[in-house]
């Protein structure tokens, strides 16, 4: 039996040896086959490029993930799930259903999805979940860095992050923008910064990023367009290569190839189209109304707003600041409340203006979205460094990119975008969070119309023509033209100066005061008329001027504020600017406030003298 056992073991050993030799032969045959294939291939540059692209696609495969029905199925921490419910996240969007599971597995992710599809929560949730579940927070060490292109988006992403860590308050979220702080990097678990701000502080604070575990580049195409390529390289180089990386954008173009090589390692590619988003969210309709002259744009805009054809919140995009203020002055003359938003305003004023618009304080916002992405003459990214231009505008400012406007019903392209990406980002301001929306463009016949049709063809959008019968609104033309003639270049410049002065005062001198007096902060209105020459009767639209089809349905009278009988200024206790100089004077009567306004000193009554009786 011993011999049989010994012989059996020899046979088994022989079989193992033969199997090992077969495996070696297979491996050698595979290697030789690869070598033969390489030898058969010619060494032309075109074939080498094809081979490189083929090798890259092997590492970057689009994600084909099974749909996740709820956030609970993702295995998120209970505190994160509770925060999701508190902010209204009921069901993951397509990009969240694909991106969150991939990020939770530790994969690098390259995600492309339309604006308004939930990309911010898609990269925040896995990062915050990892930090919270491992209790890796609260020690002031930077463990996650999120790079965004603009200041507004920086504060917005930080605001969403704080809401998602509501039930883990020890996890600190800080922002880092240019010209803020003392030049050092703040101690925080999650840092949201612009590339330029982070690059400025690397010389003195590079050691603070030694333990970073996550890095995200949000709106990656815009990061490059703003000239942040060098700053982004410096920022990424300071972060350990072992960190998990995510690159998020609305589109994947060739300009992102260098950034992908710098940030990502064998990423999982997630591509979400408009059709995928449309299945779970709202529907956007794209309309076009072709006009003849620029004055027709003002006429159609006035008719749509005044006759209440456009209802709900309306976001009007223009391409120049002068046009924004001209349109604002034009709407003021007809008592249509509106506000302007542009890069000349201080950061606090811009944020507060967006918050008031989202809160419904006013329904019309004229947004100046100067084309910082693509020059008018060629479709190439702008490689200039993001510095302030001669007009004082700030290139770290972007309106159509990433800013979350709530419940916008209509996006009106008063000035047309110059690039397809710009159009898509403008359109992404509406139909968010499962709602429907409309994008209406007002091109002039000729080049503007051809450019818009080309943009929509590139994006595969169906452009529906909205026929505007100009004869129906022709009765309003004389009012429009008369108002436009009264708005001169000098009026526009004066309005710009007044607006900047007012907002600068509110942003700098009153910052500390408003922190202790939040009610007075709410009293500052961004929709104030910029000119005193507002004629109240223009807010009244007589019935004979209404189109015949709208005389019964449209409301013919706009709400006009009537002046007080006393024609006096508002009381100083409601004026936040007057409250700054007022000290604590205790309880005051209306007579005391009147004396204070008129500068009348209060007489003190002394003891009556004998013999003086009146």
From TrEMBL:
Residues 27-43, 559-568, 593-614 have a biased composition (Basic residues). It is an enzyme of class 3 (hydrolase). A motif (Q motif) lies at residues 69-97. Gene3D superfamilies: P-loop containing nucleotide triphosphate hydrolases. Belongs to the DEAD box helicase family. DDX56/DBP9 subfamily. Residues 8-26, 569-592 have a biased composition (Basic and acidic residues). It comes from Rhodosorus marinus. PROSITE patterns: HELICASE_ATP_BIND_1, HELICASE_CTER, Q_MOTIF. Its EC number is 3.6.4.13. Pfam families: DEAD, Helicase_C. This is RNA helicase. Keywords: ATP-binding, Helicase, Hydrolase, Nucleotide-binding, RNA-binding. CDD domains: SF2_C_DEAD (cd18787).
